[in-house]
Amino acid sequence: MRSHRRRDFLKGLGASVGAGFLFTPFLDSIAEAAPGRKPKRLLLFCTMGTAPSIWKPTSVSGETPTFSESTSPLADVKQHVVLVDGLPSGNPGNNHGAPDALTGLGFSDPAKLISVDQFIADKLIAAGTKTQIPSLLLGAESTVNGGRSPYYRKDNLPGIASPTSAYSTLFGSAIPSNTSSDDLLRRRKSVLDHLKNEIKALEGNLGSEQKYKLELHIDSIRQIEERLSNTSSGQTGGCSVPTKPATDPANPLQANLLHMDLLVGAFACDITRVGAIQWGSDQAMNVDLQDIGLKGDEHGAMIHTGAPAHLDLIKLEKWLSQRFVDLINKLKAIPEADGSGTLFDNTLIAWCRDMGDSPNHNQNEMKFVLASGEGGYLKTAPGGRYIKSGERHERVLLSLCDAMGVTDFAGFGDPNLRSKSPLPGLSAS
């Protein structure tokens, strides 16, 4: 009976504390960027690899690209964009399902796998700033066809697939009617105190491993208490809660359009500083875009069909490029709470892929599209920039760390990488 009551109590805790608080220990508080640097957010836009022939600029003058058909929407924001190409991974023969893309490390030592979003979030937590979620991972069908996401913390981390669940996690803890914020804060703290007492009462009957797990849980409760104490009662600045999704669309691409709005809303309300959206898994993405006459699986029906022209893949890549532009424009439309420009002015966006050459299943030439706002991290140019480099792709991941004020790279990526530093030429400083 006691265990059933505890289960009921935990369900009640979810209703009282809020859905987002139950994702401990992962949803801990996160920190500001390093002292003296403008706080920045990181947004990862993750897709399957592409065909190099359709992605590369049709011509390059100096570093100024002429965008291909598949990347042509990027021309509308070219002053913010840097295309990076030609970077091999540490395991260039790896392909679908390999963790290299965001970890910089293959399967040789799974215990050390950590993706750049998780690594940055951990470093920011250590610096001490409090927000609700350290790394927000969203994406419909991120494990479709037995596939994986690019996010790792030893094991693979799938994103939240359901927009309605994501909304509840992010914005579902609104203050009930006829309840003040101070009353709600006292109620939540009381619930947490009761839960700690319940857990402590169990310790005497448990072995060392179970006691260790309980201690981790108690630590997560302490972190919740700190967040409650440091959370203001009202929202300010550009914080605007997105419209609650009525249902989860059956079409995964439509679901991800809702995820985009939720991610922007989470940035605007300072719920997270590190966010990611994934389009499909490394094995498949079910495409149904009637407005452009495109239907089928990205992997089987587009990447490995239609060579050399890849007409359907060009349509899909062009559609995805427009979604990348949409994210920029959504962030541009929201002012910072402190008056320091727009959300985009303080955000770095990175379009990352699991492979550089999907038709040939390899990571010989990994590709990134990076974007930042006025006065942002990137060295940009009015006509855009195209950089082709033979350096390891991990160095771009280290640039993402550097942009977020993380300069101690110990514990991330390949320990044998000779040039353990950001990619030269990306940073404006």
Automatic annotation (TrEMBL):
Magnesium among keywords: no
InterPro entries: DUF1552 (IPR011447), TAT_signal (IPR006311), TAT_signal_bac_arc (IPR019546)
Protein's name according to its UniProt entry: DUF1552 domain-containing protein
Source organism, top-level taxon: Bacteria
Alphabetic keyword roster: Coiled coil
Species per Swiss-Prot/TrEMBL record: Sorangium atrum
Recorded coiled-coil stretches: 185-212
Region (Disordered) location: 229-248
